[in-house]
Design a protein that fits this description.
The protein is mainly alpha-helical and about 425 residues long. The strands form 5 sheets. A 3-stranded antiparallel β-sheet has the order 5-6-9. Strands 1-2 form a two-stranded antiparallel ribbon. Strand 7 and strand 8 form a beta hairpin. Helix 5 packs parallel to helix 11, helix 15 packs antiparallel against helix 16 and helix 16 crosses helix 17. The longest helix is centred in the middle third of the chain and has 21 residues. The chain is globular, with a radius of gyration of 20 Å. About 55% of the residues are buried. The structure holds alpha-D-glucopyranose (GLC). The site of alpha-D-glucopyranose has 7 residues, from helix 2. Alpha-D-glucopyranose (GLC) binds next to helix 2.
């Protein structure tokens, strides 16, 4: 059984490999996605370290001159995906989208560098350092306002948690009256009950049209866009990535970068505090236009351990949330609070479990001494994949697959983290 699943996971990565980059799944996502690729590199590294390096290198080949790393890289046109390169009109030599995604690269490159014994591989990973540093700098120049310290997203897709209820209120003011007619393609590949609604999609496209109208001027979009939300997931992930980049810089002898990175870290730690909602007693996202917290507990709220933040009182409150949710959910960790009316076990980021988020959660829980939580997350992830397949996401109620199947990052997480081969 074990061998069969390991082989299946490797077959998925090979089948989704389009030559140096991997698509998340065929059909639904036919291009290279930013954080997917970085997680996928962890999977490749279990059987082909050189291919793992290539995956991240191809992502950074699409980096813009100002350090920005796009969320989608459109290497070969595929009419089956909307919005494609003709709609985004971004990037230069390689067409890309105009928004970014959670910066997990520093953390994963640091992991890959530390676990490899091969000088050649270490050198290739070290060569990614300047690009990653430039990307972090881009965030601080464009997306980390001094008065917040947290990372501001300008499109729900930047969060990677595309359809979370956290975006409902901030997105409700987006003007969709001038959106050009379009045809969705995602519904040809996935059940409409699992995907965002028409209104959500209209808002997504309105934001793309707004960004395009500025010529993808990120400073301008960050200051005046119609959707500006300090995202708890992005903030915790960048915070963790900064700690890991500091660690990598020290190992590589890049002491010249340390002051800058320590400064970024201090800002982001303040940013995490900015996202603590006293009323809901949780870390959550916060609308920069209205100043309001979402008030929602999500799987991203629990990334405080991964980021290494939270004082004793905050942690105690999070323990209370964990106890309630873990008693309610058959599988952990739902992307949205099962006790909230917007919870939907099958719809994108409104309930389903993503294994990559579980990987980060388990790492943080283990590091911060919540071993039981880490153990539960790991065994649930293992069961979900072995009993239900390599799905995009999973219902926390039934375990059923949600979204696409034969999914690259789920396969990668099996190989690198939750597959039985990783049992200590
Ligand atoms: C969806 C997810 C996003 C992911 C992409 C490709 O858009 O919300 O996080 O990167 O699919 O898997």
């Amino acid at each position: 059984m074990q061998d069969v699943l390991d082989k299946k996971a490797r077959d998925i990565l090979r089948a989704n490999d389009k030559g140096g980059f991997t698509v998340p799944t065929s059909g639904l996502y036919p291009y290279q996605w930013n954080w997917d690729s970085v997680f996928v590199a962890l999977g490749f590294a279990t059987f082909d370290e050189a291919r793992a390096c290539r995956e991240i290198e191809t992502l950074f080949e699409a980096q813009w001159d100002d350090g920005f790393v796009p969320h989608i890289i459109f290497r070969r046109y595929d009419p089956d995906y909307f919005p494609g390169p003709d709609v985004w009109q971004a990037g230069s030599d390689i067409p890309t989208s105009g928004i970014t995604q959670p910066p997990v690269a520093a953390s994963i490159v640091n992991t890959l560098w530390s676990q490899s014994d091969a000088t050649q591989i270490k050198d290739r990973l070290a060569a990614l350092f300047p690009g990653i540093l430039a990307w972090h700098r881009w965030f601080h120049n464009n997306r980390v306002p001094d008065d917040a310290g947290a990372v501001v997203i300008t499109h729900p897709w930047e969060s990677g948690r595309d359809n979370s209820p956290e975006w409902d209120a901030p997105a409700s003011n987006i003007d969709v009256s001038r959106v050009q007619p379009y045809e969705r393609r995602d519904l040809q590949h996935a059940d409409a009950a699992m995907r965002p609604t028409k209104l959500d999609y209209d808002r997504y496209i309105a934001l793309v049209e707004f960004g395009r109208s500025t010529g993808w001027d990120h400073a301008l979009i960050g200051k005046s866009g119609p959707f500006r939300v300090a995202d708890v997931g992005m903030t915790m992930i960048l915070l963790r990535a900064t700690r890991d980049l500091i660690d990598l810089a020290s190992k590589l002898g890049r002491d010249d970068a340390l002051d800058e990175l320590e400064g970024y870290l201090r800002q982001l730690v303040e940013g995490a505090e900015f996202l603590w909602d006293e009323e809901a007693e949780t870390f959550c996202s916060r609308d920069m236009i209205t100043g309001r917290h979402s008030g929602y507990l999500t799987n991203a709220s629990f990334l405080h351990c991964y980021a290494g933040v939270g004082n004793a009182q905050q942690r105690e409150k999070m323990v209370g949330h964990w106890d309630r949710i873990s008693a309610q959910a058959n599988f952990m960790m739902p992307s949205h609070d099962p006790g909230d009316s917007r919870f939907d076990a099958m719809r994108y980021w409104r309930g389903p479990i993503w294994i990559v988020v579980n990987y980060m959660l388990a790492m943080g829980f283990r590091e911060q001494g919540f071993d039981d939580w880490a153990g539960r997350i790991l065994s649930d992830s293992r069961r979900l994949i072995s009993e239900h397949g390599f799905n995009e996401a999973f219902s926390p109620v039934s375990g059923d697959g949600s979204g696409g199947s034969d999914f690259s990052w789920t396969a990668a997480m099996w190989l690198a983290w939750c597959g039985a081969a990783n049992e200590q």
